[in-house]
Specification:
With 252 residues, the protein is an alpha+beta fold. It has eleven helices and four strands. The longest helix is centred in the N-terminal third of the chain and has 19 residues.
Length: 252
């Protein structure tokens, strides 16, 4: 089936989502988040684009980005390739890290721009990663709080409000409006599930888990599922396909 052409923004502004392949974790530790941000900064200077919001979740990435002379396909390809090369070297793995092409939706009016802006910054709150909006360390919320425009282009956004205080109040007001995806629902949080996986398997990363001998891997998958971790979470946190997980769970 041929790929569908991407919808074009009249404003050259897009909400972009990058996911780990099989929804697996792409940020194992703080240095991984910092490296991705460093790559964003590197290409922001070279490809002349603006970032109005970002959020790096453990297995996916949100960007609110405006391009100019360099098109979005080129920008995202450069970012993905550079990060994957670094990540594969660090974790001694090969192959793809990101799932298929990046997803994007065009922003064609400033009202929806603000909806996406708030959605991205509140993603950690609705995913249960923070109890107070704005405390998660890997989003653009802190740049707006500190009025720091050295990386995030905050001025365009703040001008849409009376002042920066009104902007922060808007960001801090809980909104259930979802953009391109829903929030994950689970009895066990991803953080607790990941801790359980590490403690019970001795694997410190998705790459470690994927290198397990098949019998041991399947035994752990079955045990972890019986402990309350859902198939969707196991898929996301280990990088093992849903089909393989389901087979492991059903095995004797």
């Amino acid at each position: 089936m041929p790929r569908q052409a991407r919808k074009v923004s009249e404003l050259n502004i897009y909400h972009v989502i990058l996911r780990g392949i099989n929804r697996q974790i792409i940020f194992e530790e703080d240095n991984d988040y910092l490296q991705f941000i460093s790559i964003l900064k590197y290409y922001k200077n070279r490809c002349d684009f603006k970032i109005y919001a970002y959020c790096l979740m453990n297995n996916h990435i949100h960007l609110l980005i405006e391009h100019s002379s360099t098109n979005m396909e080129t920008i995202m390809k450069k970012i993905e390739v550079k990060f994957v090369r670094w990540y594969n070297t660090k974790y001694q793995r090969v192959g793809h890290l990101f799932q298929d092409r990046y997803k994007s939706e065009p922003i064609n009016d400033m009202r929806y721009f603000l909806t996406v802006f708030r959605y991205i910054n509140q993603n950690p709150f609705h995913a249960g990663l923070e109890s107070v909006i704005g405390t998660y360390p890997w989003s653009s919320y802190q740049e707006y709080l500190a009025l720091d425009d050295s990386f995030i282009d905050i001025n365009k956004v703040i001008k849409l409000f009376t002042d920066s205080e009104e902007c922060i109040n808007f960001l801090s007001t809980d909104s259930n409006i979802k953009c391109m995806e829903g929030y994950p629902q689970s009895g066990i949080s991803d953080k607790d599930a990941l801790q359980m996986i590490r403690e019970r398997t001795g694997c410190d990363s998705t790459a470690d888990f994927q290198c397990l001998e098949l019998f041991a891997r399947n035994k752990y998958l079955k045990m972890l599922h019986q402990s309350g971790i859902t198939i969707r979470q196991l898929n996301r946190l280990t990088g093992i396909s849903r089909t393989s997980i389901e087979k492991a769970i059903k095995s004797e």
